[in-house]
């Protein structure tokens, strides 16, 4: 365990240092070094934010199951789930914050919110969710009941994840996104990544497979299947509709220059291998650990395949050649700086989880010791 | 095949370049004499007259000091038909200044808004640069200023035109990292700063064939009011329900 911890710490230090360099590039060079622009205005950072914020909601929903609905076997996972939720939220908000053209004006969303904007609604939801999460963690630490927080937090988390999908779906002019299905897909994605992350955490924490880990493994399997069915429905209905923009965007996902992201990263590494592992050896620690790692590690590809293809089809045919300049291209690949900044956001989320959870374990342990 | 003599006359807006521009300038003066809420700016583009020279695109770039990756008025080059029955059509695409703009609806801080005279404007000091409006615009009419310069990464040092101020929205702004308009979303504002000074938009005065008309749609005497009633008038993506104030004569 100590050797493992040293290895993980070493990996984290390298990732964080690289992330800091990315942050330096972001602040000294602004957005000029990014791959997105006027034609494709969103990229890796938006996809990462989308994944992490929905994962935060999913983790919270899972944490509320034992608290509100008496799912006893998940009780040991309440604390890590809440800490992981906070960490994912921090990572997601850092990612989207650095994506803003004017980060230091973000507070304007509280000062002058536009009530018709899904984005404004989301920002308010994140703030409410973060406050609830911190209050619940403090209550948990002091040994007080957390039910009242969970009763409020659960609907907030569901609406937050759904609104994270509605952010895209509400854009009526982007037909690839414009579907009532998308918010549901984002909620399910949040639950799936949250469950997979907890499977990974609980497999790492204990050398033997606990009842909670087994349940989480089964839940990951079921959610993976649901997620794939929803994705199939989304793609097949879109393709059958014959709508040119939807067909073109779906074609980009399935057969475009980055089709390997869908087939290789998402379908094979992130879905088929975990499915086989969880179906064939659901009680083996290694298969639970690897499945959790693969699902969480590959899920960014799903979000990228929502964000980018939806923007890569020109709003008017011919716009792609009307004026040719950097920033007006209808293709996107993240630059090294974008990857490094994303690494910063993820490694910071790891730090929040590790420090927070360990501090929490220590301080609640001490409190229990004192009580004894 | 029809000879040029057999083509039907253009129904409206005939006359030489000078008389058309002078008429639009007179329309503009009348509109400016009214309270701002009683004006409704509109643009009409005659696709039969547009030759695709892109002078409007270049004039707009120059007037607004637009950097790489920011273009307010590209011209779409369309090929229609199959050989030997082929033709080309050029469609300039400024901001449509929609009556029901989807960009205004999605802006989280209300930085993009509809003025009483119909112009969809951006408050550069409030825009957070989230680019949701860019994603939501059905016409791809919005650009993100990422802080690039044309001479960046070239052996040439920064040129004076790159540090010259732009006068969009009546404020002189020099592009510097961290300050608006860098980091903002930008778009055509019908050259509001020129209108306020009694001048037509740069694209209108530059067009050598007078294919673009501009004026007050609420003024029954104006040229654009006359053109908006043409049976050739059509709007882009009407199914979106955005009600553009830029109209094309096909």
3D structure, described in words:
The complex is a heterodimer of chains A (about 375) and B (about 250). Chain A is mostly helical. Chain A has 14 helices and no strands. Chain A has helices spanning about 1-30, 45-70, 80-100, 110, 120-140, 145-170, 180-205, 210-240, 245-255, 260-280, 285-300, 300-310, 320, 335-370. In chain A, helix 1 (about 1-30) crosses helix 14 (about 335-370). Chain B has about 250 residues and is an alpha+beta fold. Chain B contains 8 helices and 10 strands. Chain B has helices spanning about 15-30, 55-65, 100-105, 130-135, 160-165, 190-195, 200-205, 225-230, and strands at about 40-45, 75-80, 85-90, 110-115, 120, 145, 185, 210-215, 235, 245-250. In chain B, strands 8-1-10-9 form a 4-stranded mixed β-sheet. The mean pLDDT of chain B is about 95. At the A-B interface, helix 4, helix 5 and helix 13 of A face strand 2, helix 3, helix 4 and strand 6 of B.
Topology (SSEs and partners):
The complex is a heterodimer of chains A (372) and B (250).
Chain A: H1 2-29, H2 44-69, H3 78-99, H4 108-111, H5 118-142, H6 147-169, H7 181-205, H8 211-241, H9 244-255, H10 259-280, H11 285-298, H12 300-312, H13 319-322, H14 336-371
Helix pairs in contact in A: 1-14, 2-3, 2-6, 2-7, 2-12, 3-5, 3-14, 5-6, 6-7, 7-8, 7-11, 8-10, 9-10, 9-12, 10-11
Chain B: H1 17-32, E1 41-46, H2 55-64, E2 75-82, E3 85-92, H3 102-106, E4 112-114, E5 120-122, H4 132-136, E6 143-144, H5 160-163, E7 185-186, H6 192-196, H7 202-206, E8 212-216, H8 223-228, E9 233-234, E10 246-249
Parallel strand pairs in B: 1-10
Antiparallel strand pairs in B: 1-8, 2-3, 4-5, 6-7, 9-10
